Amino acid sequence: xxxDQTYTKLTRRDFPEKKGLKTVRFLLIEDNQNLAQTVLxxxxxxxxxxxxxxxxxxxxxxxxxAQYDLIxxxxxxxxxxxxxxxxxxxxxxxxxxxxxxxxxxVSDRVGTLDLGADDYITKPFDFEELKARCRAVLxxxxxxxxxxxxxxxxxxNPMEATVTIAGDVRTxxxxxxxxxxxxxxGAGRIFSKDQLCDRLFSFDEAVSDNAIEVYVARLRRKLxxxxxxxxxxxxxxxxxxx
Length: 242
Prior knowledge:
The chain is α/β, with parallel strands linked by helices. It folds into two domains: 12-140, Response regulator (Rossmann fold), CATH 3.40.50; 149-241, Arc Repressor Mutant, subunit A (Orthogonal Bundle). 36% of the residues lie in helices and 22% in strands. It has helices spanning 33-45, 56-65, 82-90, 106-115, 127-140, 174-185, 193-200, 211-222, and strands at residues 25-29, 49-53, 70-74, 76-77, 80-81, 97-101, 119-122, 149-151, 154-157, 162-165, 168-171, 229-233, 237-241. Mean pLDDT is 81; it is low at 3-21.
């Protein structure tokens, strides 16, 4: 169980599979550092992007700078009540929000859901339950598409992190997977390096100037032999074309 008092250092070996949850970007709003580090470690170990805000001011700054697929929100925060944030943000954006709190009374759960929360989980909780709730919320939001996507002559399976070209299966690493997902979702659209950095890296990660070039080069090697290719638009960015 994940509680406010315990923190266990985890590695990828502890969570080898995504169990059906596609690669997404999370915003975790939680002031308890032990709990936050545990959730961050477990989400990151599965290949997802996650940013952490320890208070509402940091959360607002994150939302102004990036787009998220799912928000995990604590209620009691140092600079305000998460319910006020929930009510205000629900009127501004459709990003799903799962509330995490130690309050277990029915009235608290009902009130939070009525304010616009998409789901509610009570601390302490098991991470498997949190993952299941994330999957359910993303399905309702239409953000968990069919597992195999097709473009030109390639078949992309995000759940297995593989690309198949003419029967040849190539395995993708986490950032290659996330990069291909972004490019496939906007096939033909030009993405700048900054936009790709926003989707591939969290704010607290040190990113070199040529990081995107490195991952684009790696993904290009995985796509060799396919009619689908990543085109460099000089001075602007990259796009996936056939």
